[in-house]
Amino acid sequence: LDCCRICAREESELILSLVKKVLEKLDNTPLGVAKYPVGLHSRLNELRRKLDVKGNGVKVLGLYGMGGVGKTTLAKALYNQFVVYFKKRSFISDVKEIARRQNGMATLQSKLIGDLKSGASPIIDDTAKGIRSIKESMNNEPVAIFLDDVDNADQLRVLVGRRDWFCQGSRVVVTTRDQNVLLPSVVNETFEVKELSLSESLTLFSYHAFGREHPPKNFSVLAEEVVKLSGGLPLALEVFGSLLFYKKRLKEWEDLVQKLRQIRPGV
Questions:
Q1: How far apart are CA 103 and CA 101, in angstroms?
Q2: Averaged pLDDT, 38-64
Q3: How many CB atoms lie within 10 A of CB 107?
Q4: Which residues contact 217 (CB under 8 A, 6 or more apart)?
Q5: Domains in the chain, ordered, with CATH?
Q6: Residue 92 phi, psi (nearest 5)
Q7: Where does the sequence pass through the membrane (predicted)?
Q8: What value does the mean pLDDT of the chain take?
Q9: Which pTM was predicted?
Q10: Would you say 175 and 60 are in contact if contact means Cβ atoms under 8 Å apart?
Q11: How far is it, in rounded angstroms, from Cα 266 to Cα 33?
């Protein structure tokens, strides 16, 4: 009977241990990044140098650029590389959209606190209370916080406040379309996410449109025109490429390119 109890206890402990390991793995699961990361690695390397994850101090990096230029993709890829360095971390998407909802600021604070504490998100009914809870949840440990698509300085004030909130070694990344949101009192590093070069754009478009690095010769002229019409924006290249993927006849391409010319005249 004692042997049965011991075996049952050992089995129970083994199950708990396995569950814990699975949850840890899930918590470390990388965020989904672009299927074809063209031009991503060189930009990532530059950001890693700026943030110097093993260095001292608190660094708050602002990524800014027009919509569709790849700020979110870059932030997710960077977060995936930071996961192994920080026990306390959070990636909050669509900050702008959430902030617009009723009690949106408090919802964002609740999400951040839950992430940093690795538990359920608490109910926050007052942003001042939320600020106190955010500071407490850091517990004098370095943190990694990523805020995606911020469009108002107040969002920064209630979520990351000032750099002296943070323990040495902390890293914060903010993405925005509006550089003016990146308050100098909060942000001490900036990086403009620019459009892809012509060659990078053609490669990315080719992957989405043909599933290969270069377009077939008979489609190359039309492919280059679509690329120019996209303005080097990865999102536009993905949308146009995916739209053309199942169109195998030149006439279908010519018709679509003509429509794109009307949408973007003079490009």
A1: 6
A2: 92
A3: 18
A4: none
A5: 32-192 (3.40.50.300), 198-263 (1.10.8)
A6: -110, 115
A7: none
A8: 86
A9: 0.81
A10: no
A11: 33
With tokens 């469009």, the residue in question is 151
Identify the pLDDT of residue 31: 60
Neighbours of 37 (CB within 10 A): 16
> Does the pLDDT at position 227 exceed 60?
yes
User: Which of 8-17, 35-44, 248-257 has the lowest average pLDDT?
Assistant: 8-17
Structure tokens given for 203: 């490669």
Q: What is the pLDDT of residues 80-103, one digit of tens each?
A: 998 889 999 999 999 999 999 999
**Amino acid sitting at position 196:** L
Give the number of residues written for the chain.
267
Which residues of the chain form beta strands (DSSP E)?
59-64, 88-92, 143-147, 171-176, 189-192
Cα 245 to Cα 209: distance, rounded to the nearest angstrom: 4
State the Cα–Cα distance between residues 61 and 160, nearest whole angstrom: 12
- Which run of H or E residues covers position 111? helix 104-117
- Cα distances (Å, whole numbers) of residue 95 to 59, 92, 180: 20, 7, 16
pLDDT above 70: percentage of residues in the chain = 86
Beta bridge partners of 59: 171
How far is the CA of 214 from the CAs of 24, 39, 246, in angstroms?
40, 15, 17
Which residues 6+ apart lie within 8 Å of 141 measured at CB? Answer: 87, 88, 167
User: What would the pLDDT profile of 147-169 be if each residue is shown by its tens digit?
Assistant: 999 999 999 999 998 898 999 99
Whether residue 195 contacts residue 207, with contact meaning beta carbons closer than 8 Å, is answered with no
pLDDT digits (tens, 9 = 90+) for 14-28: 544 544 444 344 454
> Which two three-digit tokens encode residue 162?
């000032």
Bridging pattern class, strands 189-192 and 88-92: unpaired
Whole-number CA gyration radius for the chain: 23
